């Protein structure tokens, strides 16, 4: 199989600036990017992506993302990808998946998110059967993470996420003229968790925990 090596425009600009001496930074975050679940078409399909020590041919070099991650789906599938806005060793818990983050080139391998106590055996770890049904909830830290997208009636593991210390709430806005168009993001406005306000052309709902703006609207 020919190695897939994707170079983004920001990466090229960054490297040109470095060559000209205008900045001295590491422009590249190199991560494995693949999935063994064909339902997730945003990522290159590789049936070996779920291997513990994956060293496959699907690679992303990015000048935007600064973290690599492993996503373990409740269905048993794996997604390896690049991310931004998270920290080394951080764990992210969602109803349909667990995600762990790492810093360093191609660090998103040789792990099944063991540091997150994810209930999946690794070559060196065995979990008690009672752990298999345990899910952790996100614990808000110094900053709030929110889904950030336009025209996204539903969210999944590929939906963009933003994290900012200025966020007080996450918000979902339904444009009533379309009936189904939803805009999601973070807000510096303080609202009661679960509060919704309807205007002439929109319905806005706020919540106050990580990635809470994942609701669907009829």
Automatic annotation (TrEMBL):
Residues 1-27 form the signal peptide. Keywords: Signal. This is Uncharacterized protein. It comes from Meganyctiphanes norvegica (Northern krill).
